[in-house]
Write a structure and sequence with these properties.
By secondary structure, the protein is an alpha+beta fold. Helices cover 26% and strands 45% of the residues. The protein has a single domain, classed as Nuclear Transport Factor 2, Chain: A (Roll). The protein contains three helices and seven strands; from the N terminus they run ααββαβββββ.
Length: 132
C-alpha cells in the first residue's frame, strides 16, 4: 500500500466512526473541502469540524472506498466511493456512487472535490420519528 493510499484509507476509517480529530489529522490546517450536501466549500479545520459535527448530528454517513486511481508521483488521487446516508432512525435516505478527488501536499490532504458518478444507486424518501 502506498503512503497516499494509506493516508486516504485512514481518513475514510476515521470518517466512518465519526472521529473528527483523526479525520483532521489527515488534512492540512487550511484544507479546502467541498461540501456535497450543501454544494459549497469550507476552509480550514474549524469549518470542517463544525460542518461535520452538524451533519453527523442529523445523519449517519457510511462511505466505502471502492477504487483508488492516481499515482504517487502525482498530487491527485481519485477515489470511487459508495455512500450510504441514513437518518437517525437508521433508514436509508440516500445511496449513491461518488468520485472524491483529493489533492495531496506534503503527505496531507490539501483539497477535496466531489463528483457525482454517472450511475446513482438509489435516492429514497421517507420520514423519521425518533422514539426515546
Amino acid at each position: 500500500m502506498t503512503p497516499t493510499h494509506e493516508l486516504l484509507t485512514s481518513a475514510y476509517a476515521a470518517f466512518n466512526v465519526r472521529d473528527i480529530d483523526a479525520v483532521l489529522s489527515t488534512t492540512h490546517p487550511d484544507v479546502d473541502w467541498a461540501t456535497n450536501a450543501e454544494g459549497d466549500r469550507i476552509l480550514g479545520h474549524d469549518q470542517v469540524r463544525k460542518y461535520w459535527m452538524r451533519q453527523w448530528s442529523a445523519f449517519d454517513f457510511d462511505v466505502t472506498p471502492l477504487m483508488f486511481t492516481g499515482s504517487e508521483r502525482g498530487k491527485t488521487m481519485v477515489v470511487d466511493v459508495h455512500q450510504v446516508v441514513r437518518d437517525m432512525c437508521g433508514k436509508v435516505i440516500l445511496e449513491q456512487m461518488l468520485q472524491q478527488v483529493f489533492s495531496i501536499r506534503d503527505g496531507l490532504i490539501e483539497r477535496i472535490d466531489v463528483r457525482k458518478s454517472a450511475a446513482p444507486v438509489s435516492p429514497a424518501k421517507h420520514s423519521c420519528e425518533l422514539r426515546v
